[in-house]
Amino acid sequence: MSTQETPRSVDTPCAEPIADTERQTARGKVLWHFTMSLDGFVAGPNHAMDWMTGFTSRPGVLEEYVETTGAVLGGRNGWDQYPHAGAVYGGAWNGPIFVLTHHPEDAQPANDVTFLSCDVAEAVRIGLEAAAGKNLEVFSPTIGRQLLDCGLIDEIDLHVAPVLLGDGIRLYDNPGSTPVRLELLNGASPLVAVNLRYHPIATR
Fold first, then answer.
1. pTM to 2 decimal places
2. Dist. CA 159–CA 95, nearest whole Å
3. Which residues, other chains included, contact 27 with Cβ-Cβ below 8 Å and sequence gap of 6+?
4. Residue 139 belongs to what domain range?
5. What is the distance between the alpha carbons of residues 196 and 78, in angstroms, rounded to a whole number?
6. Which of 27, 88, 105, 110 has the most neighbouring CB atoms within 10 Å?
7. What are the angstrom distances between the C-alpha of 140 and each of 6, 60, 172, 183?
8. 82 within some domain
9. Nearest CA to 63 among 31, 32, 95, 93?
10. Domain count, the chain
């Protein structure tokens, strides 16, 4: 649909204004969790994260994830760029980290980090067991996409940052795939479109 067209209405009830998400809960969920730019990137080129400044979050949101995260599952590319187990949530979280890789033998070792060479379903099983009733956080676009295809993602948990990157690593990069329909968890209607309004700072 072009930007000039008016979105067609659908047979859904009128929704209340969108609220911020409720507090995260530790229920043994598999969370695909990222801060994402407005144009859909979760990292810049070469996994650059220097754009993650200059914006704020809801008070207490970091503590929510520190309290509810039991284990982390990531990919080899991200680990090789940032091989620091103590950097999760700025060092406020400590726990088991699992890195899925085809070549665990040449990975840089670290305390509390286990390198797995298995399919994604087995990696989730191992991660959830280690999470001990808390949530397993997936910090990899590639692994998250594979888990989504397998029906193993419970929630996609995104913080949309007020920035346009234009290049980098997308949250969901799957050319040729069919659309994946989602339900919104915060709001009166699970099918409502989320309206975001921004002003380019450079034009002020």
1. 0.85
2. 22
3. 133, 135
4. 30-41+58-164+196-203
5. 29
6. 88
7. 35, 24, 10, 21
8. yes
9. 93
10. 1
